[in-house]
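Re: that chain you flagged

S.,

Sorry for the slow reply, it's been a week of failed gels. I finally had a moment to sit down with the sequence you sent. For the record, here it is as I used it:
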Amino acid sequence: MLVTQGAHHVFLDFRLDASGLHHAGTRVPLSPQAQAILTCLVRASPRPVEHAELFRAAWGSLRVSEGSLRQAVLEIRRALRQGDGQDAVENVRGQGYAFVAPLAGAREVLPRTLGLDTLLGCASIWSDLVDEAALHALLDAPAACVLTALDEALACGALLRAEAPRWYRFTSPEERVATYEALPRSTRASLHVRAAEWLERMGLDTSERLRAHHYGQAALPACADLAAHYATRVARRCAEAGAHAESAEWYRHAQRGLALSPTLDARAMLALALSECEATQASGAPRAGLRARFRALAEQADALDDTPTLVRAVRGHYGDLGERFSPHEPDSLDDAVAGQLVNQALARVAPEQAALRAPLLGCLAYSLAYSPRHQARRQALDEAHACARASGDAALRVRVHELEVLVEFTPTQLPTLHARCGEWVELGKQLGSRARELDARLARATVAVGLGDRDGAELDFRRARVLADELGSPEAAARALRGEIFRAFLNGELQVVEQLAARQLAALQSEPSERLIWLGRHVALAHLRSRPLPGVGALAAGTESLFGRNSMGRSFLAAAHANVGE
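Prediction finished late last night. Pasting the structure tokens below so you have them in one place:
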């Protein structure tokens, strides 16, 4: 006998529901595709179901062979042989497959109609475009009912056909949002969960963003860990592509998801908050308050006795060198607060923990940037390189190289820096990271300019443009634009320099400290070449009052005047 009970089906001695097929209280293993096909056949029983309808139910819009369908049906038949269902699925020539379990009595008849509001509500949880396969997967109704409801929606103008076959859209984004917001909260959550589960069954890598979105929108404790998991994966992929601002946003989604977990893990939440701060920092966003957030996270890590996370927070505390040029910084050349934070973390890391000591030693050198304590800074950098090599972590070696370029860009260190940047380029290739290779190329080109190697600089600038185009993110384009500025400066094209710099500053909505960095780099370049460069004074126009607020700014301005005879 076959009966339907709410969201599950009972036939013979089997029970079929959303969690799977069960026999005598034990779950029977079935692939997601086989379960979807069995559910479709049971709902339509005893009517035959066409192959096309079964393909949509199991694989959506993914194209698979007839052999895949036959294999799934064979899997169902083998599973049903555990009970009395050996002949439960039959092949009806020319019509498809049918579920023909022997009936011992009356059976509840499934509804053959689907309300228009139900269809539109289901469609509204997607973006402005919705796939017909998704509607079939989410709506608990036979395929014929779904198609009838779609025809009705098209006839009344509630939905329109999209350009791609079997895709639909609302008449306007506002109409979709209004339909979505009219759904009861519980209905929305249920539809989002079913959408995410269907995307998981499809197993497509491209659906990760959608899975993260739907589990997050469901906002249910039962889905909290999944929402955080997928949002974190998307955030990491964005970071790998150089899209750091988008990565930070996905890390915020992950935190919101994890906050609903009934077994909230404080360490996991701390790690997500730290990743968000790191991505925000890498995006070039305004740094106001960012160092304070890193310091607070370091304190949390210390309280949780989480040394690796403490090290990450300390690294983040240093941020970009531009933070050191803030007009509100004291005139002290040593960053005493940052140095104290590093030493506190170093005290907790054993000498043999090379992977943790390397970034901390790099940060210690960073805290001595532009300090007269050259030997201490050089010693910290050399130890950092040694630890990074001992760790075998290529990404860590890259980070130490990044720090070295920031703090050791002086005439006497340029030959060493050029060689180190060459290592950095090779490490970026080894890691398969275009973003890291882009940064390394730009750094080596800048050093080459200081050494007077115009041909070498041109080659690296050119390759950096190609890498930025391949990455395709705004951040990568902004970094490549720096190369264009240096190229123009190298060729004496002052007007081009000013135009490109204006574009860069406008794109990043930079703080005054960012302008200081830009001018400082050009002045340092002029100083390294040891001869007057036309236009350095013009670049300083309008920022002299800002420069006068801290010691490093005053020294840069003095160098500018010395190089242009002003």
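What I noticed first: The two ends are 98 Å apart (CA to CA).

Talk soon,
D.
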